UniProtKB/TrEMBL annotation:
Native organism: Trypanosoma brucei gambiense (strain MHOM/CI/86/DAL972)
Protein name: Glycosyl hydrolase
UniProt xrefs under Gene3D superfamilies: 1.50.10.10, HAD superfamily/HAD-like, Maltose phosphorylase, domain 3, Putative phosphatase, domain 2
Origin organism lineage: Eukaryota, Discoba, Euglenozoa, Kinetoplastea, Metakinetoplastina
GO MF annotation, one: hydrolase activity, hydrolyzing O-glycosyl compounds
Every Glycoside hydrolase family 65 C-terminal domain range: 772-825
Pfam families from the UniProt entry: Glyco_hydro_65C, Glyco_hydro_65m
Amino acid sequence: MGFWPRSLLARDYEVPKRPIFHLEGWDVVQGTDAATYVSGVVPDGVMYGTNGCLGVRHHCESETVGYRTSLYMNGVYHSAPLNAYVDSEALPEEIQVGATVCEVTLDCFIDGESGTLGEAPSQRLNLRDATYSSTSVDVVSGDGGLTFDSTYRQVVSLNELDLWCAETVCTNFSIDALSSGTDFASQNNSESSAKHIEEDMYSTESSTYSVVFIVSVTVSLDDWYLVGGDSTEKLLIESTTSGILVGTETEASCTVECGDRTYKIVPEQQVRNAPEDFYTPHRDCGFSHAAYVSESESEHPHSSRAAWRGTSGSRGRVCFQKQFPYTITPDNVPQKVTLSFHARHHNGGLPLSRPFPSFADVVAEQRLVLDNFWSTFWIDIQRQDELPPNRMKLGLIFNSFRLFCVSRNLQNGLPQAGCSTTKSNLLYDLQQYVYHGIYYILTSPSSALALLRSLYCMLSQARMNALRLSLEHGAVYPRRTITGTECWHCSTLNNARFHVNAEVGYIINMYFSAVESIDTNDRLWLLELMLETARVWSQVGEWVENEGVFRLDNIAGPDEYNGNAAGNFYVHLSAKLHLRNAYNLYEEQQKIVGDEAIFCLLQGINMDISELENFRTISNEIVVRRDNHLDVFLVHDHFDTLKEWKGERPKHPLSMNYHPLAIYRHKVVNIPEVLLGMLLYPAEFERKDLLQNLSYYAPLCTHDSAESLAIVACVEFRANGRFTHGMPLLCSLASLDLDNIIYAADEGLDFGAMSATWIAVVMGIGGVKITSRSLHLDPSFPAGLSVLSFTLHWRGATLRTRVEKDCITYDLMAGDSIRFIHANRHRIHLHSGCRQSVARKQVAIPQPMSSMHGEFAGAIFLCETLFDSVMEMNFIAWGKTLESLYENYRALHLRHIPPLTAEEFVDKVIYQAEHREIAFSGIHNVLLDRGIDLPLGSPDDAEIVETRYGLANAKVAELEEMWSREAPCVNPAMRALLRDLEDNGIPLALVSYSRTLKTLMQYHPEEALRFLTAIDGDEAHERHIKSRPHLDIFVRAAEKIHVEPSRCLIFSSHIDSNFKVSELSYFRMVFDVEDPFAARVRGSKTCEYPSMLRPAAADGDVRPLVINLKRDKFPTTVDGLESILCGPVASGSDLAAAGDAPPSDPCS
């Protein structure tokens, strides 16, 4: 657990305590408890199949045994009218909208009815072969007489990009003879028996079941013309709006294993739900047309949008079916029935006919491909407070798995949701390509080149975009598109946006830095792409004569909340570096490929040397301005003059809840462009710039875009190292899709967030950066981590980095040689051996975790020691909670039950002794004294449940209600001490046995941020941490801040009873901080400290283990603490720290 300030503006990304999915080996498994409260849309998206070309989304079954799947294709779209406010030839007439090609259903009907599920199916996705499976146990017929198990499996081929397969395997068939009144033993081989079975086939009293296995392929005629095809085997459809042709070829079969026989059922073909004119009249395809069949009421409902042209009104749908009938009797019960389906889909026409591989063969090929991937790629974070285990690991490897699958077709672009859903989420969000580019360059350079090639394929349309904007030459890339035209509504409403051009240039420059061997042809088209995107800057900016600088005004960056002002920081920075890198790349490639090739390239794009020289001139004169008063870089020239957002917490996202002008007038950011610029161009900034700008912009982030979490977390890791608070943001980002954190499952998976998560880990915690074509690594080890491990590719080699508490280990996993710089000063060369050099494939660098020269290296505080009134408020809350219970008992048992007294609360509750983990022994003893014995219960007990946990939950609610009216103040001396400890670089941890810790610290965000980690009652319960008088919670906190307990100071209270000397001696010193409430109640009554003196040192000095600290004589500085630690102090004495007078205002 850690604290991150959720500002007034920030969107809530709270990670739920119970995850929806778990990692079992290499399987992503939906939790059994999650299936009862999580919408089926969530597992549908998480467990869909894709290869970057096809998206196959299974729709979770909840009641019947039918398996329905939607098919999407990368680059297949419908056209929709552009809702422009101005009728202008300069704007495109239409935009692209992702299409659902068809739906495929594998059904099982028993006597005309769907089989009913006995329980929620078990769903899992295997990350080693990319197969999805859903297992339903005890599928039941309508009369309950027939039961069987059904397993649905689905796989999208990673080798043949147009292929996917599915199969339903039914096993464990059982007929309940008790449900039948027929004596089959006496009627064997009898004609009357056969006649009786035939007559009663659909009777609920019969033990003969007519089972029909059905494969259906359904096409919406509102979106598609059916050009040809009269069965499921071959279909050709054409979009009613875009004219795109999609050809489909399928194969379906049903195999029965019964006794010693294995045979296939002969299918029956049908066409259902088809209007009479469902074929397009204007295209002759050579297919036979299917006959019209009346609509069946048993079909699943299907919704479709109305096309804006080509058809008028709803035309319905056409459903092609293959039916496989089979009769099950007590004498003919199969061991297994397998319904198989294979399909190929091709954009542009029918796929080339070729035999379909078996399901098993496809899975075997998948495993080979993925084994090769996992052998050279890895990323893992192990957190100390992670429950259940591997939760962060699951998010990281799931994201990596998904990014690998879509990489098989990157040459055709990467849809925003990776083909996991349709409509606008099938578009390419080119603003996210900068994250994808970084990810693929450092993990799979060939995939990065394919991604860049997809951009190059759009170059002709990008040039047309530039012409539409009255630019003489160059190319302008849109933010969202499929064909290259802009499909983002904001681009038609506010200022021009060219930042995607700069990000394309950034990816190209990074690719040349990270890849050693590049083909000459690739060098040329990459250079062409770089130059064409860079040359727009000179045309959209202007020289300011009196200042001699080049300005790019009225051009917006990626943050849509700041798109209407001049002097955008990100635009100026990225344009400056884009132009510089373009010129440098030109000079570099001229030396490599030769003057002739470069001359032909420049001639082809109508560029001369003077224009290239102008790149360098403009780059040198673009000024990135810093605000000298605030010492930060402003988003734009007037950002600091905007109003602060005050009042109620805003609704998210802001863009969908507030007018753009209302947003523009406020000091808010969605994507923190300043921090993004610092992350992408680290050589341009110093560490102090990161710290200053992070503290300024982090509270202003709305985080409406998930990538902003990665940006802030990454800069936080880089700026603060092991003292970072970025881990909560990273946890939210890694779990974004798996836990449906912002309830956006309908919109598919967020692939931009996936790439950004990897960047936050590797470039943030791992400290990876690229400057001057050199690789730098400077890993940190934030509090709460136990292990960090990741791989990256650099110039033909694969480097694995493992960060642990004691050391950082670098391993050369593949390749002959790799050179990099560690911690900005140590140059390291790992190699497999060459000439006379002995191979050096690994180097381990010790971790300088903390200074061993000071008196202590860490401090851990019990939460209650920070406040003067928390224990008194706990007494009031417990009193009210118990009084509600007592009233019921008084009424039921007609006897007097005394209320809780302050003396009783102090002696029995505050000083309660727990033998193991938290059990509320003190409250239990209070109740036993009144003849009430309540069981412990569980943390999930409701407030009205009469258990100790139920009472505790009611007390928590009462306490939080009290705090909402008047929150307790942090003791001023304690506040001063915390500030000084943080300023001196001492890692701090906060612990509490209460589950109210997080709520309480929300009222004190400034103090909360001083603590690197925290442990509350929930974590203590889940980790089985022993309660007082044990000190296990402090030992655990020391581990989380990576400081040895013997170097830690402990600030606790009520140490004067039951604590063991052996446990107290673990720590450098334990301070027993006075509790004003207990001191007032008990008066002079105190428990004596046991004899707790350390053995005498060589100089004869004897040091106590515990020192009592009075509130009015509390040290407020590190110097004051060290004076106590070093001075001659008697055990258990009251201390006054010289020169440390506390502030006077108790709530200042």
